[in-house]
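Cross-check.
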Amino acid sequence: MKGKKQTSRNASQREKHLFTEANTAWDRGDVRQAFTLFMQAAKLGDRASQLDLGYFFDNGLSVKKDKTKAIEWYRRAYLQGDAGAANNIGTVHRDLGDTRKMLWWFRRAAAMGDPDVLLDLGKRYEIGLAVPRNLAKAKLFYRRVIASKEATIDGKTEASSRLATLRQFSH
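Predicted model, tokenized:
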């Protein structure tokens, strides 16, 4: 799941300041103060703070765990173009057992280029988990992870390894 430490783009100076202060509070373990500051910035429209608030509600950090509120805040971030928020909404639906909604949101995140969900979808198509097994689609998702500027080294390594294995067994 996406959360802590996302950079805040297109934010006012006030939103940026609140977001930075919220992360500082979180880093020192003051999650209640972090929540309060993220809430202030999120209400001003800060996308990264909206994503983090979703994370707080999703995981019950300083607040009662509330998947509905988590989705609400993730959705606000998603509507501002945050692919990680779409991934997180899909993850909430996965955890709630709603495969149809999970896949719908994972596909939104993939369309936006989220490397984590690209890798997840590649694995799902490779083994046929919640989708029909389709090695061509799996390879496509793995290639997108490898080409992504946002993917981690670990993600790229795993995608490369899985792609190599698929190539080896498809000949």
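The first helix runs from residue 13 to 27. The mean pLDDT is 94. Passed to J.P. for a second look.
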